[in-house]
Amino acid sequence: QVQLVESGGGLVQAGGSLRLSCAASTRTFGSYAMGWFRQAPGKEREFVSGIRWSGLGTMYADSVKGRFTISRANAENTVYLQMNSLKPEDTAVYYCAAKTGGTEVNPDSYSYWGQGTQVTVSS
To answer: Strand pairing partners for 82?
Structure first.
């Protein structure tokens, strides 16, 4: 139905930046709210950021406010997560997700998921 593919992860030193991309294989990309989640070893998958179908409304976890920025380019079927001032605590596998309706923080509310991209921040 919807295939999501993340890219842009890698190894970066603390204080550095990365930009994650999520490409969607759907012709109705603008109909979905999009979210970024992350999961570190031994931890539950947690909400990072979300964006409404319009691109106007955005949400951020308290831990990333002021450092991460989510955006989308509907004509390109792509959502981005710009990550600045990275900390070792940001190390995780980052997942792109899609859902109908409004953006939510609960990962169980998202219907479509990418395979994840690893982000590792060295101390």
So the answer is: 19, 69
What lies within 8 Å, CB to CB, of 106 at 6+ separation is 47
Each residue's pLDDT tens digit, 55-76: 778 999 999 999 999 998 878 8
Distance CA 9, CA 93 (A): 9
Low-confidence ranges of the chain (pLDDT < 70): none
Phi-psi map region of 66: left, alpha, beta (phi>0 left; psi -120 to 50 alpha): left
Burial of 47-84, coded b for 16+ CB within 10 Å and e otherwise, reads bbbbbbbeeeeebbbeebeeebebebebeebbbbbebe
Q: How far is Cα of residue 95 from the mean position of the Cα atoms in its chain?
A: 6
Query: Residue 107 in 3-state DSSP?
Result: helix
